[in-house]
Amino acid sequence: MESINRTWTAFLIGGLLFAILGLYSIINPGIGFVTFGLLLGISLIYQGITEITYAVYAKNQYRDWGWILVYGIVSLTFGLYLLLNPAQSAFIVAYTVLFLIMLRSLKAIVVSIQMQALNNSKWWIMLLFGILGFVFSFYLFDYPIATAEFSVIWIGCGILAVGVLLIGFAISIKKNIQT
Fold first, then answer.
1. What distance in Å separates the CA atoms of residue 140 and residue 21, rounded to the nearest whole number?
2. How are the residues of the chain apportioned to helix, strand and coil, as percentages rounded to the nearest 5?
3. What is the pLDDT along the chain (179 residues), one digit of tens a residue?
4. Where are the beta strands (DSSP E) in 49-95?
5. Sign of the C-alpha dihedral computed for residues 90, 94, 95 and 99 taken in this order
6. Residue 122 burial (C-beta neighbours within 10 Å; 0-12, 13-18, 19+)
7. What is this structure's pTM?
8. Where are the domains of the chain?
């Protein structure tokens, strides 16, 4: 158990890296996806190495240590991909967001038609937002930079949340050491 407890600083550093990257992305979405991809790649590589190290230490204490190892390997692999292909990863994320908005909007239109058939008086609200979302997705296809900035803000929120969770995990390990 002592070997696991020694990893608290690695989780704290990883949490701080994620929190700083998340805040920076939210405050300054114009950093661009290339810079974002590089910074995220570095953070994921660090996190992957930390998770792999933790899994090796934890294998005698936790029966589910294999999932920690898998997560570490996936994080490391994805981090290396982002670091080696930052420009390509930017387009993948931006167009994934676009297609999700488009598909979600089409689904809203289909659901609105089903709602109307069931005599639901609010069907037109679903239809309106479905059409607006669909039109908006085509607008975003014409302006991928706006999509990139929008994505960076929301991804930044997620990264900030992961950073806070890692910091909390590090603090809980540290408290466990002291007791």
1. 25
2. 90, 0, 10
3. 555 566 788 888 888 988 998 898 888 877 666 777 777 788 889 889 988 998 888 788 777 788 889 988 998 998 898 888 876 766 666 676 677 778 888 888 988 898 888 888 888 998 999 999 899 888 777 777 777 777 778 878 888 888 898 898 888 888 877 76
4. none
5. positive
6. exposed
7. 0.56
8. 2-178
